[in-house]
Amino acid sequence: MGAAKSGRRIGLWLLLLILLVAPIAGSKLGLISNFMVLQLSLMIVYAIAVLGLNLLTGYNGQISLGHGAFFAIGAYVAAVLIDRYDLPWWSTLPIAAASCFVAGYLFGLPALRLEGHYLALATFALAIAVPQILKYRHLENLTGGVQGINLIKPDAPFGLPLNSDQWMYVVVFVVAVFMFWVARNLLDSRIGRSLMAIRDHAMAASTMGINIAQTKAITFGISALYVGVAGALHAIIFEFVAPDSFRIDVSISLLVGMVVGGVASLFGSVLGGVFVQVIEKYADAGARLLSQSLHLPIDIEPWTIYGIALILLVYVMPTGIAGGLAALWGRIRRRSGN
Amino acid sequence: MSKLTRRNLITGTSVLALALAAAATPSLAQKKYDDGASDTEIKIGNIMPYSGNASAYGAIGKTSEAVMKKINDEGGINGRKVNFISYDDGYSPPKAVEMVRKLVEEDKVLLVFNPLGTPSNTAIQKYLNTKKVPQLFVATGASKWGKPKEFPWTMGWQPDYATEGSIYAKHILANHKDAKIGVLMQNDDYGKDYFNGFKEGLGKENEKLIVQVSTYEVTDPTVDSQMIQLKNSGANVFFNITTPKFAAQAIKKAAEIDWKPVHYLNNVSSSFGAVFKPAGIEASQGILLALYRKDASDPQWANSPDIVAWKAFMAKYMPGADIRDDGHNYGFSVANTLVEVLKRCGDNLTRENVMKQAASLQGFEAPMLLPGIKINTSPTDFYPIQSVQLGRVKGESFELFGQILSNESK
């Protein structure tokens, strides 16, 4: 048993190493373009954001339709600090994390009186308000208004033989591994157990001495912190923020990514991040390909593909891709066991 | 067969190398390529709002694509086929950034042609100039595209908004003694550019004539409430700085609430198909605007060669398209300007030469331009078209009046 566990751990490290090195090597050999490296980095960024939402919704049972707002706050904190105050990019990550924790905690306090759908609506309002606030005339000096802020991607330090896209992939990857590691340990701890106890039966949890209000607000804060870090990373690697980057779509994408990847699952969060990036960027190309190859008389809207993919996934894998894969794996094992 | 010795090999190789060098030198001197160009192909990148709130402009991208198809059918440009790659940016700056990165890094295009919209172009300008990729003939008239010193890889095409705005202002001052001006504008650089030019044209002392400025976001569903606000302000002159969808809404709403100001509309919405028809031809009568291209349905141009060519092109390459949509007219004109530049590049298809040729057009008469309006550029003049003529909507076409107003000295 112990051998199997340590074997699995070595396997995980090996997998992480491959995931870290393969894209860099591929891009060094000219197999994949810098643009592709950026796409991979964005997948990881969204994975962190989906994890943040999963902590709140999957593990704690609070539904948020407005996490795009924290994504935006994280991105703008990073962008404004780099652009207006010339701070080094790496220092903006903890600042973005802290700001989003505070914002999330404060938003979580009053929102605690709201349960279920009402909380979802309150967060929805937040997501709609944030882009408008970013466009606000008197904040324009800071936020750049509708035109947003252009940044310049940081180069690799210490003369590392990496271009900026490759370097940022390494950074994003390392940050993501750290964030997932923290989340895992958090969930394995007393706090994690109380999170899930509240989700499963709030009254029972409070009988056992869990401070529900406090725990929920802190969870909201931590969740926002994760999404904020993802937002800051997004701003740095994408080199551009504008209010239109953070429309309500972002919040919906994160929620969809979480459901598709797997609710209350760390691995599911990774898959959700990949899904958010892939489906959004390639639904467009897919729609075009489909209408051309089938010679359809009408143009298919990209969102159609998105919808079809979503319906299929929910029917085929009701517990998300992570759950579906686990079920599939179980079935194979049982069959081979027989 | 002689035996393969080392000496033979060395002599043979050197002779071969010399021969290769001799053969290669002259052709290398003639043919020069950057990414996206070769003996057989020229790759051109483009982004357009095919979806979203500015999707009316999608017609421009489709027309440019069709023009390139026509050019290819006729044998291409100097024997090279054009590969036109166009992506949807939904009029959203972040999407534009991503799509342009894809065009440059993955598709490896020679240049990015006619990307549409001031916000999108602002978002990609820094990137393209750092990468030294031409951002050529952008589909926006903001005055900031003609700054070769700061942005040597960016060039505009159409008359700039600030100049156009000041032309309207001067016309108002000359013709409407007690004007009370209401302005509706899109809240971004495009809207502000027009508005600033307009204020400059009025002059400091006349700025008080503006009684109401209402703005809208490009993501707003309608401008209905702004129109009511403007009517209630008591304005009797209306300067309408809107993109086609909102322009149509504004004209329609003005008719609905029975507000009848003297209506000046910016040129970017000078389309019967996308603006006046949806808004109602009746409601659009008398709207004033600055024009620089011929309206293809105006009978006075029926026999001019470019209009005849355009009609034949539309019939063959864009059957079923609404020919009253100004995007087709615009797209034909701007795409042919690009073809001219690429023809002049000859076999030297480097990004540098593309910019050089684009910056040395003198007296070029692009199809569809009004008589007397020509394209002039130079290394210090990155504003290709700088003349307009005023017109008004009459029946189902424009009635031109006055002289060609030029700002060529800029």
Structure description:
The complex is a heterodimer of chains A (338) and B (410). Chain A has 14 helices and two strands, in the order H-H-H-H-H-H-E-H-H-H-H-E-H-H-H-H. Chain A has a domain of 234 residues. Chain A is mostly helical and 338 residues long. In chain A, strands 1-2 form a two-stranded antiparallel ribbon. By secondary structure, chain B is of the alpha/beta class. Chain B contains 13 helices and 13 strands. In chain B, helix 5 packs parallel to helix 6, helix 7 packs across helix 8 and helix 12 packs across helix 13. The radius of gyration of chain B is 24 Å and the shape is globular. Chains A and B meet through helix 2, helix 5 and strand 2 of A and helix 3 and helix 4 of B.
| Through-space gap between termini of chain B | 73 Å
Query: What would you call the shape of chain A?
Result: globular
CATH secondary-structure class of the largest domain in chain B: Alpha Beta
Order of helices and strands of chain A: HHHHHHEHHHHEHHHH
**CATH superfamily annotation of the largest domain in chain B:** Response regulator
Structure class of chain B: alpha/beta
Number of helices of chain B: 13
The overall number of domains of chain B is 2
Overall average pLDDT of chain B = 88
